[in-house]
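Submission sheet (multi-component)
Chains listed below:
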Amino acid sequence: MSKYDDLKKRCYEANMQLPELQLIVYTFGNVSVVDRAQNVFAIKPSGVPYAQLSPTDIVIVDFENQIIEGSLRPSSDTKTHAYLYKSWQGIESICHTHSTFAVAWSQAQRDIPILGTTHADHLITDVPCTEPMKDEDIKGDYEHMTGKQIVEYFERHDLSPTETEMILIANHGPFTWGASHEKAVYNSKILEELAHMAYLTEQINPEAKRLKDSLIQKHYERKHGKDAYYGQ
Amino acid sequence: MSKYDDLKKRCYEANMQLPELQLIVYTFGNVSVVDRAQNVFAIKPSGVPYAQLSPTDIVIVDFENQIIEGSLRPSSDTKTHAYLYKSWQGIESICHTHSTFAVAWSQAQRDIPILGTTHADHLITDVPCTEPMKDEDIKGDYEHMTGKQIVEYFERHDLSPTETEMILIANHGPFTWGASHEKAVYNSKILEELAHMAYLTEQINPEAKRLKDSLIQKHYERKHGKDAYYGQ
Amino acid sequence: MSKYDDLKKRCYEANMQLPELQLIVYTFGNVSVVDRAQNVFAIKPSGVPYAQLSPTDIVIVDFENQIIEGSLRPSSDTKTHAYLYKSWQGIESICHTHSTFAVAWSQAQRDIPILGTTHADHLITDVPCTEPMKDEDIKGDYEHMTGKQIVEYFERHDLSPTETEMILIANHGPFTWGASHEKAVYNSKILEELAHMAYLTEQINPEAKRLKDSLIQKHYERKHGKDAYYGQ
Amino acid sequence: MSKYDDLKKRCYEANMQLPELQLIVYTFGNVSVVDRAQNVFAIKPSGVPYAQLSPTDIVIVDFENQIIEGSLRPSSDTKTHAYLYKSWQGIESICHTHSTFAVAWSQAQRDIPILGTTHADHLITDVPCTEPMKDEDIKGDYEHMTGKQIVEYFERHDLSPTETEMILIANHGPFTWGASHEKAVYNSKILEELAHMAYLTEQINPEAKRLKDSLIQKHYERKHGKDAYYGQ
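Outcome: structure written.
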């Protein structure tokens, strides 16, 4: 028994969603869930196959990347998660995958343009893609710098992490987050679908235009505005 | 017990087909079924996950968008369904999805050209795609205007809703319908397949030509003409 | 009991392979199996969903398209099958699908070029695609003329139906055949895979070259030549 | 009972992974596992369907391609496996498939460029693709020459088979290998995923650039370097 049992269980369940939603092959992904009261987060151990994962394998880490509980090494991306939790109070869970279409846009080093209402139902901006990281940052504390790069990108572009809940890391892949572990994982699945649709749209019409502003506002607000009427 | 139990059950079963046919992720779709004698239709509640949906959750709505029975909020697209039922007496069920290939053509703002007999087996026109909606219509009664836009498109282009049972809404996605809930859902699946095939055809041959008229007529008539010989 | 029970059973099993191999949606395909001694063939009834199909539904037809046994209407493509059985003594079963990639090449009106050894393991020619049918043939005895078109194409291009066991009908889709019902269905699956691979190859390298003759011969002969050493 | 029972069992299990990982249709692939102490390897029999395969069907062959144990004919690619085992002491298992995206790059006769960290997590070079084989080699001892071609390619390009554990044979398909049968099969799955991602990346951005060296080094070393911190 541990006071983190519930946190570990939620983290475990979120991670187990990744193979079920076909967002990963093998161990290419990780989900973390934060406990804001304790200033710690639970994260998948590194390189453990999903079929062998159990809730007790989940590692508890604090925002300075110290292991608080757990006998396994945490995900190699742990420092990126820590940096985001520390910087952004509004997020409760982070999900990282190497899902095929999202990775393809990351490798293409392109933002995913907002082309339709499926996109606008979830975010009112393009899905941002970072610039390639500088050599000195890569050679240094790489995963920490990845977190820093994300946060600085949001500041520089005046984006809000509670409105745009996803980013592509150039040449790497997507990070998504949300107010719950269900939402963080959901955003990874949605992103993959948006990445697939945008790719096809450009193939069908290379001149396809960005969604007009009025439609962006309309769809986002029917799901997220003060007079939202989507859902229960 | 309610006099709408059978209607709700058919609506429920039609909605449950969408994940099974891989036409949706999460809650991105809805099917309605009309009762012409009662002037009401049954529709999926908004944002309820399919795994949790039960026949009693289905909402009964009239053509003025008033809830007649049900404790949940109906689909956010309800007014579009109502407008179509009111305008077109010949249709009994409507299906809306965000299926990947159909959405891509919608975002590309292109009609899906009739390129082969798989298409002609089902409709003798291109799959139409509307123009982007005007800003004032988007800001106003958006879902109502979407219905109006569909009906006016059919009138302007001299299309018959009992012959062409599908349309793409620019930047949004497909609506399909039919003389039964099985047919409405079937049309969504067929549309997705036609959208996939047409996309591939243009990739393989950018100069691919529209199907010749004689073949359009032949295939449509062997399934739907007065001397039809397809099926039992 | 009927003397055709075994023939019907094999035909039923071959047809049931189509949804299992993901070669069709709904009822978009049919397999027939011939009995050379009786000069009849068994074929799927038209438009019957696979989930409801049983061996007793299979229809027995002769080469003049007369129903010999069965209460259901045979596939609308029956006359095409009959024409091929009558013209080509060496084939025992025919399979027709609307599989996605094979249809895309048909709609593109292009032969599938032989680009690799996966292709050469099965046939030493491109997968041929017919010319669009003449208007008078479409308006006339269409399915009969489709069979005639296939046979004449093979004669005109000096192709052997026991070596090249597949063809694409322009704007329609594939027919495959073979010395057994297993082989006819197998060829439809292989064709779909070849169509997918060839499509991708041209996307990756628009200048991709046809396989060199020495490699075509080598791979075909290790599977089919007199010194074949593939298989048991 | 045979002293090769354990070797056969591992070979059987590795082969059974191929359909499960969706790397093959029908019998289009084979995995072998070597016993370095005995100078033999176990390999799949040729053309036996996976559903009928059992551990006792696995054939034991020595490096001169002599059958040591087994009543079935070994894979037609056996001589390629033998050549690689003989030339490269560091490898323990070899996997050959006709997986769709890897074959497409093979048919396109292109190396798969290293475009992202998913690739760099596994190898620091492009995935090499051989030149088309010379006619005299094809006509001669073809499968032996395929092995020779691979080994000579690695020598000529100064590649290490324990670092770059995969190659594409022009117009044919992939061979992968590794220090265990799990790793050899794993590499085939990874290769297919890399081939898919690289294809999409070039479609999304035809000017997509090769991954910068600092990022290649970083990702490879966090998994494989002396201070690796990926995995347990």
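Remark: The mean pLDDT of chain C is 96.
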